[in-house]
Amino acid sequence: MKNVFSFKNVLAIVVAGFFVLVSCSKSSDNPVSATNATGINSESAADSYTSETADISNSITTNAGNGVLSGARAEAVTFSGAILKRWDKRLACATVTINHTGNREKPSGTISITWDNSTCADTTGVKRTGTILITYSGYWFIAGSTRTITYQNYSRGGITISGTYTRKSLTTLSASDTSATTLTIQFRDSLAGGQVTFANGKSITRNKTVTVQWDVQRIGIFYVPVNYKHLAGGSANGTLENGSTYTMTINTDIVYTEACLLAKNFTPVSGTKTIVITPSGGGTSTTLTIDFGSGQCNENKATVTINGKSETITVNGAGG
């Protein structure tokens, strides 16, 4: 199966906004200062790394099959190797174990995704260690079903993630829907007590609520994502590495496409969001608007506007 998304790859996602360093300028006075660049970078990195884990969970719950999730086949089922690579290339080095606690009418249980070899890289070159633990309730295609994600010493490329991430399905699919060649599925995502700790030891905290849309193509028995959106109205808040606080609001849908992500264009192809950064010691807040383009692969660039002045930035995965 193709990557759901590959932030830094992230994303997955991740797959969600991303990692910025100033590259070239549209204005003569460079409105994006080093401090603002770090703030944008950290906020976007935290968004992408945490969002990726939710979409890895989607890959598993949509492809494991109803019989496995409901316990119709066995008490516990373990997957590894080639089958996981078909589901999602980010799972190439993982072992997935599904334990059910419910039944066919009310499926529930836990899914553990464990990477225990720090030298193994997935097909995009990313190394992961630790465990993502998913507690699920209900079939993934029924509105109201939930997946709650927690982390046990989980790190991605040396960046550690903690917190509680909840994904709730908003869409109910009928039998005719699930047999169709294309699907549109929406989820309500929330992150509570999120923290992303970068390789330099600095961290950013994050709380988030956003509606996510998955546009999916069915190929055989597998569901392959085509694009992924954070819909307008979503928001987040937290604390940056330097102690400043931030709020983020999505103004227009943030859109990622599978084709651009696989071409290593890790930023969204379109959409805008606003970040307001308030210094830790008080003082005047800074408002930044980030525009990711008009729908084409954009070589990891975005346009940042501050006080009516705009600058083009290039994205990387450094975090700080």
Short description:
16% of the residues lie in helices and 45% in strands.
* Class derived from helix and strand content: alpha+beta
Total strand count, please? 16
**Biggest sheet layout:** 16 strands, antiparallel
The separation of the N and C termini measures 32 Å
Please give the count of helices. 5
Low-confidence stretches: 1-28
The percent range for strand residues is over 45%
Mean pLDDT: 81
Our Rg estimate from Cα atoms comes to 19 Å
Percent helix among the residues? 10-25%
Describe the global form. globular
Order of helices and strands: EHHEHEEEEEHEEEEEHEEEE
Count of the separate structural domains: 1
Question: Could you explain how this protein is built, in words?
Answer:
The chain has a 16-stranded antiparallel β-sheet that branches. The longest helix has 30 residues, at 34-63. The protein is α+β, with helices and mostly antiparallel strands and 320 residues long. The chain contains 5 helices and 16 strands. Mean pLDDT is 81; it is low at 1-28. The protein has one domain. A hairpin with a 7-residue loop joins strand 13 (270-278) and strand 14 (286-294).
Give the helices and strands, then pairings:
Elements: E1 20-22, H1 34-63, H2 66-70, E2 76-80, H3 82-87, E3 95-100, E4 108-115, E5 128-137, E6 146-156, E7 159-169, H4 175-178, E8 182-197, E9 203-219, E10 222-230, E11 235-239, E12 245-257, H5 258-262, E13 270-278, E14 286-294, E15 301-306, E16 309-315
